[in-house]
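Why this split exists: single-chain examples teach little about how molecules sit against one another. For that reason, every record in the complexes split bundles all components of an assembly together and asks for one structure covering all of them. Below is a record exactly as it appears in the raw files.
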Amino acid sequence: MSDIDSNKPFSQACENNRQPIYEVLKDTFANKKTILEIGSGTGQHAVYMAPRMNHLQWQTSDLSENVEGINRWINDEKVVNVLRPLEIDIEKHWPNTDLLKNFDGLYTANTCHIMPWETVRKFFVGLKGMEEGSRLAIYGPFKYQGQFTSESNERFEHWLKAQEAHRGIRDFEAIAEEANKSGFELLKDHNMPANNQLLIWQKR
Ligand SMILES: C[S@@+](CC[C@H](N)C(=O)[O-])C[C@H]1O[C@@H](n2cnc3c(N)ncnc32)[C@H](O)[C@@H]1O
């Protein structure tokens, strides 16, 4: 009988997007040693990315309700460079400069359109605590000059707002303003499959 936990939380989107994201992150984080992931979700990105970048350690985190699921993925994949999840709620546990000084990279996927905009701003304010040269990678859908990049993203926006009014696809320009205020400059805006972006920033 298999020891694999087949009832653990599962995201098909993560299965679909993990390889294209990895193709970017392997260069972005080539010289980085410690990555903090905010909003790890199921943990599928962490257990896929980290073993392919075995020069670094990948710290998972999420709200308390997702900690168990992430642990179940770590147990099954038996990866050595993924650290068990920290409970981090940006609304409650942020900024955390003492924690952040341990990391030279930060990754977050599909969180900016889930967190309320004030929480997204708080997230960026906290990033002021990262050291010069640190890299920030943000994956997800964004609008440009108020325009959706596709009809499917516009439909997604309606679906998000029907769930929670504070959710919504963010304007790239507003994200860039917050990142710049926290000392990050944009290195590259990657167009990704399924009308997503992967934004790569570096701390000045
Ligand atoms: C759409 S899921 C994305 C999960 C995963 N990163 C992925 O791409 O599949 C959004 C994640 O953001 C997390 N999240 C929501 N609000 C948060 C907050 N205030 N602080 C930290 N994480 C939060 C959720 O718990 C969830 O795991």
